[in-house]
Amino acid sequence: MQLLELLPAFLLVFVRLTAFFVTAPIFSTRSIPAVFKIGLSFFIAFIAFPLVKANHVIPVDWTYVYLVIKEVLTGLLLGFLAALFLAAVQVAGSIIDMMLGLAMASVVDPLTGTQAPLMGNFKYILTMLFILSANGHHLLIQGVLSSYQVVPLDRWFSGMSDGTLSTFLIEKFSYMFMSGMLLAAPLVSSLFVIDLALGIMAKTVPQMNIFVVGMPVKILAGFLILVVVFPGYFFVMTRLLEVLFSAMARMIEIMGAVP
């Protein structure tokens, strides 16, 4: 098979990987130059291309445009699903900051370049370090490469017309908020008890200015509780990553199902 006949299929592999790295966590951070992302996509596509099998030579015509759009959507959806699960960490941080009174103390997230909650940014950076230490970035690349075996290059993915894919994404979107609430639950419940105790103190000792005393007490107690529950955080992250990769496998299965 000549090189020019293989070039359209190689470009489709390259497009899916590039779209995945645009939205996937770790790879989509602003600190990574765009040239590096494109170069990484190119070399991974060059290595993985011999493993990708097309049913026939892909012609360059009007149908090729639809195949390019399909590859872009496939990569974006897989990367978005991975980023969606990790957004639960920032949701939990937003809830914790609201309870601690630090909701207005937003900082610039160096990974995304946007305003992020203080505790959410702290936990998100810890999560990124945990993923890197557990070789989670290798598993993300392995996940998108496995999609080529299920979602062919020369066929539109399924699950779009019957609503299976959109239903799956909505379920995982709701799961993200539930995970954020569960991650913040130990600290939020403890701070609720502290708020209740401060309210009782304000009624029993009216001479005390509870607004002056309450804020430092809540912040100090919040950080002490965070230190206590911190060792279990990485066990929760391990479970969240397991759910993430199983969700990616399920999404690839839905996209590659025969209509």
UniProtKB/TrEMBL annotation:
Q: Subcellular location, in the record's words?
A: Cell membrane; Bacterial flagellum basal body
So where does this one cross the membrane? 6-27, 34-52, 72-96, 124-145, 175-198, 210-236
Could you tell me the membrane topology recorded for this protein? Multi-pass membrane protein
One Gene Ontology BP term is:
bacterial-type flagellum assembly
The record's keywords, sorted A to Z, are: Bacterial flagellum, Cell membrane, Cell projection, Cilium, Flagellum, Membrane, Transmembrane, Transmembrane helix
Q: Which domain of life is it from?
A: Bacteria
Q: Name one GO cellular component term.
A: bacterial-type flagellum basal body
* InterPro entries in UniProt: FliR, T3SS_IM_R
Q: Is Transmembrane included in the keywords of this UniProt record? A: yes
What Pfam family is a match for this entry? Bac_export_1
Record family assignment: Belongs to the FliR/MopE/SpaR family.
Q: What does this protein do?
A: Role in flagellar biosynthesis.
Protein name in UniProt: Flagellar biosynthetic protein FliR
Q: Which organism is it from?
A: Aneurinibacillus thermoaerophilus
